[in-house]
Every structure is written in C-alpha cells, then in structure tokens.
Amino acid sequence: MKLGNFSLRGRVALFTGVAVGSLCIVFSTVLLFAINKMATQNLTKEVTAVGELTAYYVDRGELVNPLPPISQDLIRPVQVVDPLGQVVAATKDLQHKPLMAHFAPKSPQRMASAVVCHSDFASDQCHIVVAQHVYRNGDWTIYSAAPALPFYVYPGVAAILIVGTVVFTIAVAHGARHTVTSSLRPVDAIRAQLDHIQSTNLGRRVPVPTAKDEIYRLARSANQTLDRLEDVLEQQRRFCSDASHELRTPITAIRAQMEDALLAPEDVDLARLGNAVLPSVERLQSIASNLLTLTRLEAGPPREQQAIDLAELVAKELEGHQTSGKVVQRLTLGVTVMGDRSRLGQLICNLVQNAQRYASSTVTVTVWRTDGDPGFPGGVAEVEVLDDGPGIAADQRETVFQRFARLDTARSREAGGVGLGLPIARQIAESHGGTLTIQDSDRGARFVVRLPLYS
User: Where does the UniProt annotation locate this protein (predicted)?
Assistant: First the structure.
C-alpha cells in the first residue's frame, strides 16, 4: 500500500512510530553494549581474584592437584603452569586437558587477559582467560577463566528492552495520532463550512479558532479569500447588469427604428434610416471595443516594453486628436518611462477626451518628474490632465472609475461616453506599475497619472 493512501493522521502516526521505534532500538543497542562492557569488566575482576587466590597457594607451596574447592561465588576453571611450561595443577573440569591459553603476561606486567574460544573447556562457548605470573623458584603462570557474557548480558534485560520499545513506540504513535486528530478538528470544521458555502452562498465564513496558530491563520486567509471572491462576484453581477442595461438602450433604439420601417416599407428612406441607426451601432461598437480592451488589460501586463518619452507621446497623441476646445500643453522633455506605447497613448487619449467632454473652454495637459517619493524610489513621472468644468465631488472620485458609472450632474449619454474610458485608463496605469487618481483643484477635475521613471 502506498503511503499516499494513508490519511494525514495515519502518516504522522506511522512516521512517529517508526522514528521512535528506531531511536528506541538504537538506545537499547547502545545500552546493551554499555551493560555488556561493564559486566565483562566485573567478570574479569572476579576471574582475576580467583587467579590471585590460586597464586597465594603457589607462593606458600601449598599447591595440590586437583586444586582445592573455592567458595561457590568464585568457582572458575583454573590451571597452574610451572616454569617448564607443564600443567601441574588444575580444577576438576580441566584435569588432563591441555593449556587453556597460550599467551602470558609481558614483562614488566604481571597479568594479561584475552577471550579464548575452543573446545577444551567444559562448554563450547568462549571464555575470558586471565594469565598471572607468580615467582617461586622461577616464573609460574596461573590461568583462570570464566564463560564470556553474551551480547544481551542477561535475557531479562533484553526482554525488558524489547517489551519497553514496543510499548513505548505504540504509546507515542497513538499519542501522535490523537494529537493530530485534535489539531485537525478545526480543519475539518473549515472544510465542512467551505463545502457548505460552495453549495449555498458566499455570505457565510469559516470558523476561526481561538488559538492563534497555523490553523488560525489558515481560517483568516480562507475568510479573506471568500471576501475577495464575494467582492469579485458582486462586481461581475453588477458589471453584467450595467453592461446589459448599456447594450439594451442602443439595441432597443435599433429595433424600434427597424420595426417602424417594416410597418411602412414603401415610405422608408434608406439614407434616413441608416443615419438614424448608425449612432446606435457606433455606440454598440464602442461598448464592445472597450470591453475587449478591459479584458486584454486584465489578462496580463503589457507585452511590448520600450522606453517612452512622455512629453513626446502626449504631443503626438494631441496632434492626432480632434480637439473640441482649447488644449494647453506644459510638457517637460526627458521624462522617460518603460511601457507599451499604444496602451499609454490610449491612456492619454481617454483622459483628454473625458476632460474635453466636461470642460467649459480649456484643457491643460502637464508632464513633469518628481524625485524623493517613497512609493517610487527611482523617481516618478507625472501626467496631469486638468479641465475647467464643474469638477467631481470628493466622495464621488472613486465612483467614476467603476465600469459604466455616471455622475448625475456631470455625465449623460448625450455627452457621448459609455462609462468605460476612465476604468480603462486606470487599468493601463496600474498595469505599468503606476496609479491614476483624482486630486484637488481650484476648478474642474484634475486627473493625475503617476508612473515609475525609467533611467
């Protein structure tokens, strides 16, 4: 079974169990090594004590064969070798057996030890052998031995460690699963609420836990995402409603004119009918073109980036633009930005057309640069379009940037706008890393475009 088939709780419990079990095994192995080493040292001391007791008998000349019994806790195989290398005495289990070992202490040491494995002992297991020198008319060697301890030292110790490892691993894995289950309970609640929101409405929000942890931040992010999604859907609904309303007017006008013509076809003047229908068709075309422009702007940033002198761009756009009033140009050369020439040109045209639509007599276009702005570390290029019309109230300055928005006192269909020019202009400015705002002025509306300078 693949690990991905397990739930998060199962994966955490499995990982925790494996990790803890591995650590317990390593700890148990190290502990057994340490216990084995300590027990071996103690056993070597006991074997050495047995040899020292036998050396005492050799030194006093009280050596007998077989060697006399030793107290029960010190019974060990022992051999006594004379200076000629002959075994002259041994315990009963080593009678008539060859030497248990063939090493001897090196001078000046009087004792040496080693592990010896052969079948001369009563058992087939390896033994710890200690060799000691004692002087009596020459160097005598006394060998004493004891069975070497197994790795696990004592079966009880190994059993305790094995049982403890299993119990501890299971307990930790169960605790980890329980902890994860408790921690994910708010996530289950969030998921259930999201499923419910998906199937009903976007007005509901996921529950936010009181503990300010990762799940708290997840719930906050989910609610913020739902807020944005609700706003976007509301904008889309409003946009569809406004677009339908805007499109219905010219379509209704065209339908009425065509129906009138069909009622009395013999009285229809095609030239008159064409002139009557053409403004509505142009309005439909303008709305469709602007909607397509907005869609392209929202699809991504400008594609063709190049260095553009804003003063030259403004002068060229105004030169090719049909002006219905006086346009004053105050242009500073050398104010360069990086962007899409066609889109920035459309931005200028939209602002100038809007200003001319509501200006009393004059529109002023100014281009300059400003340094030291914290929002634009490399400097800012500014384009100001100012008209001398009725202006826009402070509380309505953001409303004009909404699609199909109109202000009762300043905008009307007779003025020729469809309510998309300013939203397109702001979208172009923002796609170039800048802003488009309406700022205070003594008279009229003052639109200010701010773009990052290119140096």
Answer: Cell membrane
Total domain count, the chain? 3
Contacts of 143 (CB under 8 A, 6+ apart): 51, 78, 79, 80, 81, 99, 100, 101, 129, 130, 131
What is the DSSP annotation of 329-375?
A: EEE-TT-EEEE-HHHHHHHHHHHHHHHHHH-SSEEEEEEEEE---TT
- Domain finish residue from 127, 147, 167: 147
State which H helix or E strand residue 132 sits in. Answer: strand 127-135
Please check whether residues 440 and 361 belong to one and the same domain.
Answer: yes
Structural domain that includes position 258? 212-299
How many whole angstroms separate alpha carbon 335 and alpha carbon 367?
Answer: 8
d(C-alpha 68, C-alpha 34), whole Å? 35
User: In whole angstroms, what is the distance from residue 186 CA to residue 214 CA?
Assistant: 11
pLDDT one digit per residue (tens) for the chain, 455 residues = 455 556 777 778 888 888 888 898 999 889 888 888 898 888 888 888 888 888 888 888 777 788 776 665 556 788 888 888 888 888 887 788 888 888 888 877 788 888 888 756 666 678 888 988 888 888 888 888 888 888 777 788 888 888 988 998 898 888 888 887 887 777 777 777 777 776 456 667 777 777 776 777 777 887 887 777 777 777 677 777 767 767 777 888 888 888 888 887 877 788 887 888 888 888 788 777 777 777 777 666 666 789 999 999 999 988 877 666 788 999 999 999 999 898 899 899 999 988 988 888 899 999 999 988 888 888 899 999 999 989 898 888 888 888 777 665 444 444 456 678 898 899 899 988 899 999 999 889 999 999 999 87
Q: At what angle do helices 155-199 and 8-60 cross, to 10 degrees?
A: 170
| 362 and 266 belong to one structural domain | no
Residues 294 and 313 in one domain: no
> Exposed, middle or buried by CB within 10 Å (0-12, 13-18, 19+), for 308?
buried
